Amino acid sequence: MEAFDLYSPAIDADPFPYYEILREQYPCYWSESAQLWILSRYDDIVRAAREWETFSSAQGNMIDELPGRAGATLGTTDPPRHDRLRALSQTAFARKNIELLVAPTIEIADRALARICEAKAFEFINDFSSQITVGLLFRTMGLPERDHADIRRKVILAVSTDKAQRRAYRRVQGTQRLPHRRGGGASREPNR
Fold first, then answer.
1. pLDDT tens per residue, the chain (192 residues)?
2. What is the pTM for the complete model shown?
3. Of 122, 146, 127, 126, which is closest to residue 136 (Cα–Cα)?
4. CA–CA distance, 155 with 159 (Å, rounded to integer)
């Protein structure tokens, strides 16, 4: 039996006690069910990030990898492809380009605050911060306004480790089961 059920709703609800257990008892943890390694100590993570030949991200970096995502995003590529993608994205984050986002960010934040001020209660993530994140993302991509909280919920459900939530999401969306990621190039060693 594994020390952790990575699909546990308890872990999704409050992962911090589990992070502490991982750091203290299982700093390099092999999950048999997910077929992946979990590093939980800062120095180990920094070392792994620098040694991409050994600790590749090319097969993905999520417990259940989304179809077509592995190798297609900055976080799931290794050099030299990673370096090329990073160089392309750095231009978008140059100071002059970021300064262009200040006014739209303030506008979106003001709208979210106006809605919050009219309400008797609010939930910070859904009612404020995701409004800014999703609103700004949609604006920079030239997409029309949408219900930001609904989009955030759908994204979270799509990548959730809670099997019941994913099944409910798939029923609503009519999507297929996400493939269970196998392998990763590392040989299995006992948890330390």
1. 788 888 888 887 888 999 999 999 999 999 888 888 899 999 999 999 899 999 888 888 887 777 788 888 888 899 999 999 888 888 878 889 889 999 999 999 999 999 999 998 998 888 899 889 888 888 887 878 777 767 777 777 766 766 676 666 666 655 444 343 333 333 334 444
2. 0.55
3. 146
4. 6
Give me the amino acid identity at 60. G
Q: Are 106 and 98 in contact (CB under 8 A)?
A: no
Q: Report angle CA 156, 124, 162 to the nearest 5 degrees.
A: 25
Q: Whose structure tokens read 């859904």?
A: 126
Cα distances from 101 to residues 74, 91, 142, in angstroms, run 22, 14, 13
